[in-house]
Amino acid sequence: MSQYSSKWIKVSEPAPHVLHIELARGPVNAFCKEFWVAYGKVFDTIVEDGYDVRAAVLSSSFPKIFTAGLDLNDAAAMGNNGTETVTDNARTSLATRKMLLAFQNCIGAPERAPFPVIVALHGHVIGLGVDIIGACDIRYAAANTSFAIKEVDIGLAPDIGSLAFLPKITGNHSLLRELTYTARAFSAMEADKLGLVSKVVPGGRDEVVHEALELAKFIAAKSPIAVTGSKHLITHARDHSVAENLLYTSAWNSAALLTNDISTLLKANAKKKKPNFAPLSVQTALSKL
């Protein structure tokens, strides 16, 4: 998988159709502009290439930390592009907005991917780390994980995803507001109480990555048409009314129900064999004929 790895991101395929994407910018995975651009690009490039991936696990290479968040020493990441000179406040604001939109787009790449992204959390998850995991489908945390929505402590409101995702994907607004306003650290157990994670795994990095990869393997054995359709429709339901989602689902499944995956599954079940589903990408599927 060297074609998808870059300076600070490692990509491997530990099982068929399952990718492991590791953040690897030492010492603490602090995100400079080059890092977050590469992060978004790895997901988008995999999708554009039509690589036959059916589930991915995101983790850190470093056992004691997932990410320390934004690299505060990187001027470009902070929006001033390396200069302190302000010639016009309106133009500076427009440039900052452009940077923020690009930043949000990169961090949101896992949600755009047609395959589920399972994030395996361990160590410290600070600031931007919470933005990152909000865009992932499933969040597992090692028991040693510590979270902090840290932006208030550096004088700003979270602006890359936490305040957009967390009110929609968690169930305790009182606790969410407390954690955001105070910027205090909170444990994996409190993240579970918030509804931010679906599983707390005893141990550290190795244990939670193992659990996440096992889940990814299980999902990857399912119909990719069914899984990608489910992901798309769940995301649509989050942002639309029940009536709107039902109408949208009827349109989506009027096409998706024509898939060969249904007959493939039924035939495999009849023979008590594992089904062999075609890749999502037409180009990839044709190349295997």
Automatic annotation (TrEMBL):
KW Isomerase (keyword) present: yes
Pathway annotation from the record: Lipid metabolism; fatty acid beta-oxidation
Pfam families: ECH_1
Recorded coiled-coil stretches: none
GO molecular function: delta(3,5)-delta(2,4)-dienoyl-CoA isomerase activity
Keyword annotations of the record: Fatty acid metabolism, Isomerase, Lipid metabolism
Gene Ontology terms: cellular component: mitochondrion
Name the UniProt record assigns to this protein: Enoyl-CoA hydratase
Protein species of origin: Hypholoma sublateritium (strain FD-334 SS-4)
